[in-house]
Specification:
The chain has 176 residues and is of the alpha+beta class. Helices cover 46% and strands 14% of the residues. The protein has helices at residues 47-65, 74-85, 107-138, 149-166, and strands at 6-7, 16-22, 26-32, 96-99, 102-105. The strands form 2 sheets. A 3-stranded antiparallel sheet has the order 1-2-3, with no helix packed on it. The protein has a two-stranded antiparallel ribbon with strand order 4-5. Strand 1 (6-7) and strand 2 form a beta hairpin.
């Protein structure tokens, strides 16, 4: 049995970029910046793995660029656009849209649950950082050291228990 392969060239990112789609399970990415200056890279993923890669790329770019305003790290935006561009040829077009000539994750992708995962991570990070800062304050320490580590961890666990039970409800700040 012969299977057809699709090959797509996207010239906006580099002179040659191709994606081969074979039997619905294999993506092969080959790209060169100039006449073989950079060796080809192949990446074989199932559709499910590719969909997970989209999530990882989006989350990574969100962490690196979401708070940077106009000072975004464009290299990460370009990688995100490149990875998401494969959606067009593999039945995932609703996950991308064109914005100012660049392929970006669509509103449907962004509103499809990925931000709940980011928010869960941010919540855990917030409470862990707050617990550590409060524990260090209570112990009059600038940082955890081998000498105070056990005390810091014990105090942090107390704060984490409080936060798990009540969130920020029992936190107050006295303004001067």
């Amino acid at each position: 049995m012969i299977f057809q392969r699709k090959q797509v060239k996207i010239w906006a990112f580099c002179p040659v970029f191709s994606v081969e789609f074979f039997r619905g399970i294999c993506y092969t990415v080959n790209y060169y910046l100039s006449e073989g200056a950079i060796p080809a890279m192949e990446l074989h993923l199932t559709e499910k793995q590719y969909r997970r890669l989209l999530d990882l790329v989006y989350i990574g770019n969100w962490v690196l660029n979401s708070a940077r305003g106009d000072d975004r790290i464009r290299d990460y935006d370009k990688v995100e656009s490149l990875v998401f561009s494969h959606c067009l040829d593999h039945g995932m077009a609703p996950l991308v849209e064109l914005y100012q000539g660049e392929i970006i994750p669509s509103r449907a992708f962004a509103e499809g649950g990925i931000h709940e995962a980011i928010m869960a991570y941010e919540d855990v990070s917030f409470f862990e950082i707050l617990a550590e800062e409060l524990a260090l304050r209570d112990l009059n320490a600038e940082r955890a050291t081998p000498e105070n580590y056990d005390e810091v961890v014990e105090r942090m666990e107390e704060y984490m228990g409080e936060f798990e039970a009540h969130g920020t409800d029992n936190i107050s700040v006295e303004m001067e």
